[in-house]
Amino acid sequence: MIQRQLSIYFVLIMSTVLNLFQLSAVPAVKAIMAASGKQLSAPTQVIPPLPSVAPLVIDPPPVGEKYNIDIVMDYDRHFLTVEDIITYPNRTNMPLDSLTLAVAPNLVPNCFELIRLAVNNIPVNEYRLNKQRLDISLPFTLEPDSVVEVTLRYTLSLPYLDQSTKINAPVFGYTDMQANLINWYPVVVPFVNGEWVYHDPWWYGEYLVYSKADYTVN
Q: Would you give the DSSP letter of residue 56?
């Protein structure tokens, strides 16, 4: 009985000591804050700056355009996944705010799907694809002799070619014997006399104009 009473007294004494310590600690903390003249604040969140887009620095700049095209083709499904990196030097002697590309596969229904478009590896959303014409607004002015890199990731679903019953049948697509890839990749059209050389397709003959360029296809 005596031991139980001693235990109760001990717990009461410790509780009183803790309460006195808490009451004395609060004024001490307030006094320290008042002496320092500073208020405690939450840590500041540092937001990293957005990546900036500028022309590439290549010394010496390439003489002409370069196309680096990587293809994964599912022959049985007649389906292609493509990543096309275009290195374009501005040889127009004029500053450019946009580029115009010809995308012939977009003339075929349900054939061309653009997955990703980037300028100097920075995704861009300022573009307009109408029929086979793709206009890309550059996020900077491309001065003469400056270089820009355009990356396009897209898929192609080849159409079936029934060439036995049609006159002047199209040649882009697949048959029972083979697959034909003709005018299948986006290309920057030439810039002549202050305008992009772009033509609509005709019933026969070639209508696209290609600049001299280097190609690497994997």
A: B
Contact 67, 89 (CB under 8 A): no
Tokens of 198: 């772009």
- 43 vs 40, 46, 88, 115, CA distance in Å? 9, 9, 45, 39
Q: Locate tokens 């882009």: which residue?
A: 172
How far is Cα 156 from Cα 81, in angstroms, rounded to an integer? Answer: 7
From the list 192, 152, 150, the residue with the least C-alpha distance to 55 is: 150
- Taking the C-alpha atoms of residue 27 and residue 21, their distance in angstroms, rounded to an integer, is 11
Tokens of 16: 């009183």
**Is residue 106 classed as helix, strand or coil in its secondary structure?**
helix
Cβ neighbourhood burial of 41 (10 Å; 0-12, 13-18, 19+): exposed
Residue 61 has pLDDT above 70, yes or no: no
What's the rounded Cα separation, in Å, for the pair 5 and 45? 55
Q: What angle do CA 109, 111, 114 make, to 5 degrees?
A: 115
Selection from 100, 97, 96, 87 nearest residue 135 by Cα: 100
Cα(204)–Cα(187) distance, rounded to whole angstroms?
20
Amino acid at 28: A
Q: What's the pTM value of the predicted model, to 2 decimals?
A: 0.71
* pLDDT tens readout for residues 69-102: 999 999 999 999 999 999 999 999 999 999 999 9
pLDDT digits (tens, 9 = 90+) for 12-24: 444 444 444 444 4
